[in-house]
UniProtKB/TrEMBL annotation:
Name of the molecule in the record: Nitrate/nitrite transporter
Family: Belongs to the major facilitator superfamily. Nitrate/nitrite porter (TC 2.A.1.8) family.
Domain Major facilitator superfamily (MFS) profile: 19-421
Pfam family, one: MFS_1
Origin organism lineage: Bacteria, Pseudomonadati, Pseudomonadota, Gammaproteobacteria, Nevskiales
Amino acid sequence: MSKATSINLFSLKTPQMRAFHLTWLAFFVCFFAWFAVAPLMPVIKTEFGLSKDQIANINIAAVAVTILIRLLVGPLCDKYGPRKTYTALLVLGAIPVLGIALAQSYAGFLFFRLAIGAIGASFVITQYHTSVMFAPNVVGTANAAAAGWGNAGGGVTQTLMPLVLAAVLTFGVEQTLGWRLSMIVPGVLMLIVAVLYWKYTQDCPEGNYKELREKGVEIESGKKGGLAVFLAASANYRVWMLFVTYGACFGIEIFIHNIAASYYVDKFQLDLKSAGLAAGSFGLLALFARALGGILSDRIARLKGLDGRTLLLFALMIGEGLGLLWFSSADSVALAVVAMLAFGLCTHMACGATYALVPFIDRKSLGGVAGIIGAGGNVGAVAAGFVMKGAHGDIVQTFTILGSAVVLSSLCAIAVRFSQEHKTREEALYQQAVAERASAMPATPAAAMEPG
């Protein structure tokens, strides 16, 4: 069986589509759990008497460890396959999600928040799995849609967790116990999805890596082993250019997830539910915006090839940076939300456009490429956290600095260039995928999602 040349959304008959739907679902649940405590921070801040400096440390901890784990899981996918890697991450990641309910001090809470950050590496596995399942003509769309729908978990958690807490409080428990009981929801969801992932997915269209290797079948990515793949990826300058761009788009995205609810509470005196709804609207853009970035990248590639993909990424990052500067100057709730949605649209689309490029950087080092670039997102988030800490919690100053940095980092997108030989090889694979799709039975319009 070969890679899928179309995306039949309402079908679970093929391993490609089962992987597509379960990998975005797994990422959704992980993202939900990753930021489940963020909208509850106004309550937690009061319980532990947290200072601005301590809150900044918590926000940094939430994304710091993800850098290391993202670097590791890419090569692990190459070695053990995305099925085993994702299942293990879901099971192990549920432990600190449930365990944070036991925190009794700032130090204990910081420790669990740091450990929870590991599940942010789920993104890399999602992008890896869709990359090996879908052909060049739709892989950008598949990557962006799966990641975008998964990212929406960050928006849902901003809206849903305050409601979960409110529901728990109706049973007469105190807030100090209520937020702890609320964390059972994301932890249990992770364990349920772990079972589904193990049972219903496989590593690639042909089967699972372990069985394929035992039969002597050559695997497109990772045949040399995890470390070799990682080293090959790290020697490619294009990887580091996209490392920077991803830090400037996804890094900003997860930074906003961490501070948005508290920002609306502190600056505009909104209550917890209203702040959650305002903050959640940013994350919910991922339902379509990230996919739109991938779809546009695939469409432009039909006309302009790989150079068109890089040009789109450049334009989206310029829009993101300018929009963030606008957001920093907003002086009313309505204007702040409009500005947030405007720069958020460009931010999510830029994330999709970045990972629409990832499968074409180095096919033989896919896990390493995906892992390093994915880690760049968390480096960006950590850097944003330190900027906020350096600005002594001044969020307006922080957003102004970050907006300017995003505009500058857009130059790295333009710096990504490919040799004529590379372009010719990728164009041949693209046309092969188009021909395979044309020869296959066409999907019904209602069930297909593809660029063209």
